[in-house]
Structures are given as C-alpha cells and as structure tokens.
Amino acid sequence: MLLPVATMAQTSPRPLKLVAFGDSLSAGYGLPASAAFPAVLEQALREKGVQVEISNAGVSGDTASGGLERLDWSVPDGTDAVILELGANDALRGIDPAITEKALDAIITRLKARNIAVLLAGIYAPRNLGTEYTSRFDALFPRLAQAHGLVLYPFFLDGIAGDRALNQADLLHPTPEGVRVIVQRILPTVERFLATLPAKS
After folding, report:
1. Any idea what DSSP says for residue 79?
2. I need a surface site. Which of 138, 153, 186, 201 has the fewest CB within 10 A?
3. Are 42 and 9 in contact (CB under 8 A)?
4. Residue tagged active-site, from 24, 26, 65, 74
5. Domains in the chain, start-ordered, CATH in brackets?
C-alpha cells in the first residue's frame, strides 16, 4: 500500500532512513556538515512533517566506479532509500560514458536487490567536452532511470550551475546558499519519490 508522504511519516513508527550516496556535491566540500546537501534536505523534509534521517555518504572526488567499490559499506542494512548522485567527476575527467553507465547500473541493481529504493540524480557534462561526449554522457541518466523504473532528477545542479553568487571560487561546488537552492529545486521530486515507498513498520 502506498501512502502520501505526510501520511506515511505520521504512521511510520520510525523515521525513514535515507542515504545520500555521491561525491563532493553530497559530501559538502568546503562547507560545515550542517550546510551540506543531506543535512539541509533532511531539515527541509522535517519542516514538511516527514520523519526522515539522511546519512551523508558523499566522498569528494569519487567517480561512479569508486562508488560501486564502496557501495556495500557506505549503504548499511536498514536503509530505506538512496539518493544516488554520482557522475560529475566522471564527466570532469572525460571518462567514457559507457564506463560510468555500467558502474551506475551495477549500483542500482545491487541496491534494488537489497530492496532499497533509488532516486537517481543526474548531471550534465561540461559543454567544453564537445557535442559527441556531452550527448552520450547526458543521455545515460534518463536511460538508466527508464531501464530501472526510477524517479529521475535530471540535473542536480539545476539553478546554480555557473552562478558565481551560488558557487565557491572554483565554480564547481555550491556555497551554503547554493545548497539551499539545490534543495529547494529537488524537494518536490524527493517528496514524489518518498510517496512511492511502502510504509515501514
């Protein structure tokens, strides 16, 4: 039985346990822990009455293949759902999109085998890598979401990419305000995703 998020939160005897599994964008590079994406998203959901705990399993510099290698110990048993945010470093390094897709596919497959739901957060490749590369890279996230029946948030950096006011000096990592914009943008998708989860006892 599927319940609306607010109803599910009220009837569930324990908080939903989520893991933000990603790279520096999840880890909160250059930010205090309280300003990192998982903490800010958890607070936003709690303000809406959703009882949730979001663990930060972001590792700066991680690629999709690196995430696959650490998956089992980064996502503990008892996790209800994962926000999968990997791929930005693959694109920055110009890694073959086929390698990225294969690793993400394996991560998703292994999480689903553990009955852990997955929200896939996509990323767009830097445009200076050329049309062929960016087209191949950008397409892998929608393809994975369709193949696995996942909720997809197409672009994790939507609303802040390239904005000097919302990014740190490297123009790659968000400021605290940038994180708040990310959370504001992704929140409706996260709520829709959580509403698909069965009530936990």
Report:
1. -
2. 201
3. no
4. 24
5. 16-196 (3.40.50.1110)
